[in-house]
Every structure is written in C-alpha cells, then in structure tokens.
Amino acid sequence: MTNHIIDGKQIASQVTEKVKERVERLKDQGVTPGLAVVLVGNNPASQTYVNNKTKTCERLGMYSVMIELEENISEEALLAHVEALNNDNKIHGILVQLPLPKQIDEDRVIAAISPLKDVDGFHPESVGKMMIGQQTFLSCTPFGIMKLLEYSDVEIAGKHAVIIGRSNIVGKPMGQLLLQKDATVTYCHSKTKDLHTFTKQADILVVATGHAKMIDANFIKEGAVVIDVGINRDENNKLCGDVDFASAQEVASKITPVPGGVGPMTIAMLMENTCLAAENTLNN
Ligand code: NAD
C-alpha cells in the first residue's frame, strides 16, 4: 500500500516552485532574497544540512553565503559575525546551524539575530508572536509539517494531536501550531508514563524524539496520521526515522517516510521564510 504515503519531496517541490515565482517578482523590484548560513565546527550532519540549504537557495535564484567558523571560536567573535549580518543589506535571513560548541551560549546567539532576519523562527520574539497567533517567522520544521498536513488534506480541527517530544525547535512549536488550527493537543516527553495510552488516542501523531524506530504499530490507533520527524541511522547505517515505518504503515491512514517526508519540507519553509523576510523589506 503506497498511496497513503505523504510525499514530502513532492510537496516541498510544490512549495519551492511558488517561492521561486516570488523570488522572480522580488528581483523585478530590485531585491534578491539573501540567506546567510553560519556553520561552526565540522559536524558532518550539520555540514550536509547547510550544503542542502545553500544549494536550494541557488536553485531558486536566491543569494546565499555560507560562513564557516572554527570549532573553538569564542562567543564574542561569533556574535560579531551575527551583528555584521544583521547590518548587511544583501542578507534578509540569518541561520546559525545548531548545535553550537560547548563554549557558546546558544540562547545568546539566537537572541542576537535580528527578529527581522530570524528565518529559523527561534528568536524569543518570533516564538512569543507565534504563541499569540501574530504574523511572524515560524520554526521551519513544524511550519513544514503544517504544510504537509494541508497539502495532504488532513483535517485538524477537533482532532486529537499527540506530539512526542518537547524541544524548542520541534515539539513545542508543533503543538502550538496544531492548537491554533483547533486540534486538541497532548504533549508527551521523556518523563511521560505509559506513553502508548496517549499515543493510542492520537488522530494525528507527531514523533520527534531522536530515537530510531521507537514507535511501531502498537503505539498507533488504526487510521491515525503519523508524522515522523526523526533523522537517525539504523544498525546498517541507513537513514531512518523515530517511527518503525514498515510496522506503522500497516495501521496509519497517512504516514511520512524517512527520508523524503519532513526533511525536505524544513528546507522548503526556510526558503519561504527568507523570501518573506525580503518581501518585508519592501513593505516596511
Ligand atoms: P531533542 O533531543 O531536542 O528532543 C527530543 C524530545 O524527545 C525531548 O523533548 C524528549 O523529552 C523526548 N523524548 C526523548 N526520549 C523519549 C522517550 N523515550 N519517550 C518520549 N519522549 C522522549 O530533539 P529535536 O531537536 O526535537 O529532534 C528530534 C528528532 O527530529 C531528531 O531525530 C532530529 O534529528 C530530528 N529533526 C529533524 C528535522 C527535520 O527537518 N526532519 C528537524 C529537526 C529535528
């Protein structure tokens, strides 16, 4: 049964096609959307992510710069780079790839990014606005999941959405966005007891724990929509999610694969946010 697989690659390409048209309109008005990606150290996963981000920018006709910094850079030096990017008119979006090395306070760096250029949606101002439903940059992964649900005609209002994971970048904002669309939301996390009693009630189950294949069919209600955020390596070093796809797809009505589900959407939404940041400069 393949028709119930949510094809994130295909939906992401529909989203980026629309972004491309917006980029062309911006260029006609003399503005090329620009994204700066800051990478500290040489974490191979982070390197892959930032390469994909800058490549997608190029494909869509956007300007991008990658700033690669030494693992042992001081917090002050990193903050100086962020400040320079805040003041650079060619740059509309700034992304500092997380995680950062131990000597650097991530919260301080995120707070230093201008909220006008906070295309990751991690700045406290963006998060606060998101919480009260004001227009702002939305965190790319949960924003991408909302698009996946929309493009897949998943009804949200009145449904029970269960989120496993409460990180600031995925779990928490995910629950808020679903709440804004009138879902009843339950958060589960590492201290939750009897996880399956909650997950078994989910009409929409979002899994973002970072534990390979931890959720199988036993945790899933028949007919539920399952969104797998995880990116892990299995015992054969193959990419896999936090959901055991082979087992879960037997009971899910719709399900995202890994790779090819949530991942491509995260990048697509980053492009959309960068485009929006550039449009905002014309409107302000
Ligand atoms: P994180 O480590 O910050 O948070 C994990 C969360 O899972 C925590 O809130 C924790 O309480 C919860 N958790 C851990 N073990 C649990 C358990 N046994 N039962 C219930 N809850 C448990 O991770 P994150 O940044 O939110 O990322 C989660 C996963 O999503 C990772 O695999 C990450 O690589 C992936 N990710 C993917 C994308 C994407 O674009 N596809 C983006 C961000 C993160």
Please describe what this structure looks like:
With 284 residues, the chain is of the alpha/beta class. The chain has 2 domains: 31-115, Rossmann fold, CATH 3.40.50.10860; 140-263, 3-Layer(aba) Sandwich (Rossmann fold), CATH 3.40.50.720. It contains 10 helices and 10 strands.
CATH architecture of the largest domain: 3-Layer(aba) Sandwich
Total helical elements = 10
Helix content: 40-55%
In the predicted model, the low-confidence regions spanning at least 5 consecutive residues are none
- Portion of residues in beta strands equals 5-15%
Per the CATH scheme, the topology name of the largest domain is Rossmann fold
Total discrete domains = 2
SSE ordering: HEHEHEHHHEHEHEEEEHEH
Helix-and-strand structural type: alpha/beta
Bound molecules: nicotinamide-adenine-dinucleotide
How many runs of DSSP E, i.e. beta strands? 10
Shape: globular
Distance between the termini: 49 Å
Full CATH superfamily name of the largest domain: NAD(P)-binding Rossmann-like Domain
pLDDT averaged over residues:
97
**Rg of Cα set:** 19 Å
Lateral strand order in the biggest sheet: 5-4-6-7-10
**What's the level 1 CATH class of the largest domain?**
Alpha Beta
Largest sheet: 5 strands, parallel
